[in-house]
Write a structure and sequence with these properties.
By secondary structure, the protein is an alpha+beta fold. The chain has one domain. Helix 1 packs antiparallel against helix 2 and helix 7 runs antiparallel to helix 8. The structure holds tryptophan. Tryptophan binds next to strand 9.
Length: 355
């Protein structure tokens, strides 16, 4: 019998993924039930309760496996707290309620969020989300929130981010990034670690619409210690071409810490699902990338097997993004995996995918 509710489906995948990463499953299962809230018991057959942008089929969750140097792979979950009113997806109330419920249990540090929250809040929110959560499922889970810089509209986003980073002591480092932003670039996510303020990081994600490879290199080059050639080689292999990348944007993320004059870390994300015919092709490329960066692809094989039994040729989008993390805190490769709770996207004929 297939599981009938969203939370049953996701929890089953989570338990199997925990086995792969060696994580105790009890707390991850509790967390996912809490974040899904009222959306959890909803029957899968009823379809998504709101059009969450976390995943293509509007599942409000996405898994990722982070391959790190010097440690086993780490399981993470991106989730959107149940949206009460589908007409107001960017309302922060349910997401904040989840954080407050968890903050006692897990000693979350909400002070930096409080310092900038007003900038990401409005009576008339715009865009596809207000706040998402990243749950890093180590034995003691770590929490991250994603805020929407475009909540006041696309045109206001650079001002919003500048003000937020100024308040958090990363204004000078943001100026360095601002100099390489292209007019077509969009500031899509502003992320905060909710750990103790001393070590916590701030991340800004830039979607580089239609970027050429040299423009991706330029975005990476402003971060000290990053080799742009490593970034472009990753993109070329993941996307299967030298660009320009027009189907869905490549993203760059910059990591900031308070007081640093420049960004301290950089990652690149390739929406691999838009550049392959099917998941077999995406999986093969991801295995090649993992091996190149010194990781055993067997971890990915096990994670994929934990999620689905369908043949990889039968759909596209199970592997949504692949990313390369460089610099602090940990270099490595991550693979973002869809839950496919509601739908599997049909594969694209190879002839079209190769164009
Ligand atoms: N589904 C959205 C997208 O693909 C948002 C998103 C989810 C995302 N996970 C991500 C974006 C990982 C970049 C990287 O754009």
């Amino acid at each position: 019998m297939p599981p009938e509710s969203l939370v049953a489906h996701v929890a089953e995948q989570l338990v199997r993924l925990c086995r792969v990463t060696g994580t105790a499953p009890a707390e991850p299962v509790r967390l996912v039930a809490d974040v899904l809230g009222d959306a959890g018991p909803r029957a899968l057959a009823a379809g998504p309760g709101w059009p969450s942008d976390v995943a293509d089929d509007h599942s409000p969750v996405e898994f990722s496996v982070a391959f790190d140097r010097g440690g086993p792979p780490v399981l993470r979950l991106l989730a959107e707290a149940a949206v009460a009113d589908p007409a107001r997806v960017a309302d922060l109330t349910p997401a904040l309620a989840f954080l407050h419920r968890q903050s006692g249990r897990h000693k979350l540090c909400l002070s930096r969020l409080e310092q900038v929250r007003d900038l990401f809040t409005t009576e008339r929110p715009q865009g596809l989300f207000g706040m998402w959560h990243s749950l890093i499922l180590r034995d003691v889970p770590e929490f991250k929130v994603y805020l929407n810089p475009e909540i006041h509209g696309v045109a206001a986003s650079r001002q919003v981010v500048r003000e937020a980073l100024d308040r958090l002591g990363a204004g000078p480092a943001y100026r360095v990034v601002e100099r390489v932003l292209r007019p077509a670039d969009r500031l899509t996510f502003f992320a905060l670690d909710l750990e103790d303020a001393g070590t916590a990081r701030i991340k800004l994600y830039v979607a580089q619409h239609g970027a050429r490879l040299d423009e991706v290199a330029g975005a990476a080059a402003v971060v000290p210690g990053i080799d742009p050639a490593e970034v472009t080689a990753f993109c070329e292999l993941a996307a299967g071409s030298a660009g320009p990348y027009v189907r869905r944007p490549i993203l760059s993320s910059y990591t900031f810490t308070s007081g640093a004059a420049r960004p301290v870390g950089y990652s690149v994300y390739v929406p691999i699902r838009s550049y392959v015919a099917d998941d077999r092709e995406a999986y093969d490329r991801a295995c090649t990338l993992l091996a190149r960066h010194g990781f055993d692809p067997a971890g990915l094989a096990a994670a994929v097997a934990a999620l689905t039994r369908r043949p990889l040729e039968d759909g596209v989008g199970l592997l949504a993004h692949v990313s390369l993390r460089l610099g602090r805190p940990r270099p490595g490769v991550s693979v973002y995996l869809s839950s496919e709770a509601y739908r599997v996207s049909a594969p694209v004929p190879r002839r079209i995918a190769a164009q």
